[in-house]
Amino acid sequence: MATNPNPNLEDVPSMDLMNELLRRLKCSSKPDKRLILIGPPGSGKGTQSPIIKDEYCLCHLATGDMLRAAVAAKTPLGIKAKEAMDKGDLVSDDLVVGIIDEAMKKPSCQKGFILDGFPRTVVQAEKLDQMLQRQGTKIDKVLNFAIDDAVLEERITGRWIHPSTGRTYHSKFAPPKVPGIDDVTGEPLIQRRDDTAEVLKSRLEAFHRQTEPVIDYYAKKGIVAELRAEKPPKEVTADVQKVLS
After folding, report:
1. Which range of residues forms the domain containing residue 213?
2. Which part of the chain is the Adenylate kinase active site lid domain (predicted)?
3. Which of 2, 109, 131, 236 could connect to 59 by a Cys-Cys bridge, CB 3.0–4.6 Å?
4. pTM score, two decimals?
5. Number of folded domains that form the chain
């Protein structure tokens, strides 16, 4: 269901208005933060980003989602992106940076943002920095979710999913009561196609080759905070809060 981007406030339920006002009041005292989350697949970025987003009143800019939204909304940049995708080309770095630039102007991004999935290369990092510089801002912190490849392999290849609800299990860390069967419905669990050792290996190779240099690029600016991402999620959350406080 499409939502009207500018609803008439008279039609918004009072509870929603109150909650939004309270959220904005709480947020007004928070410092602005512009963050990048970097880490290989399975390092826990997806678990931590909603917590950081709520705690610091930031907007979450996931480049894949933003591209799809721009294409769906038929914005000028979205139209260009769709042309590239239809041809089977990669969307250019300048286009992605332009879409991030547009998204940052939304009221929800007033206190800053979390960028996830971008920049993946040093060239992208440079273009992002140039765009932020034109706006008179810069990246405050890069959270590096550092984790050993072997730990990731165990994490990812043990993941099992109940397809209709998205409930996830792990053969070692959170096994279902009966192997391969959903606890609630008794239906079979599946493994996602990209949760195999082979797919992980190629994704990790790409991460080490392309994205590790991005960490070095930001480390030279003195803004990288290294997190031990193999720790339990609650401990990683506590470490993130220490780094950002």
Report:
1. 31-149+201-244
2. 159-194
3. 109
4. 0.81
5. 2
The residue annotated as part of the active site, out of 68, 167, 203, 231, is 203
CATH code assigned at 39: 3.40.50.300
* DSSP letter (8 states) at residue 2: P
| Catalytic-residue membership of 209 | no
Catalytic annotation on 120? yes
192 is annotated as an active-site residue: yes
Instruction: Indicate whether 16 belongs to any domain.
Output: no
User: How many whole angstroms from its chain centre is CA 71?
Assistant: 19
Measuring CA to CA, how many Å separate 97 from each of 75, 91, 228?
14, 10, 29
Let me know: does 182 contact 163? Beta carbons within 8 Å. no
Q: What is the 3-state composition of the chain as percent helix, strand, coil, each rounded to the nearest 5?
A: 50, 15, 35
Which CA distances in Å does 88 have to 85, 91, 199? 5, 9, 21
Q: How far is CA 70 from the centre of its chain?
A: 17
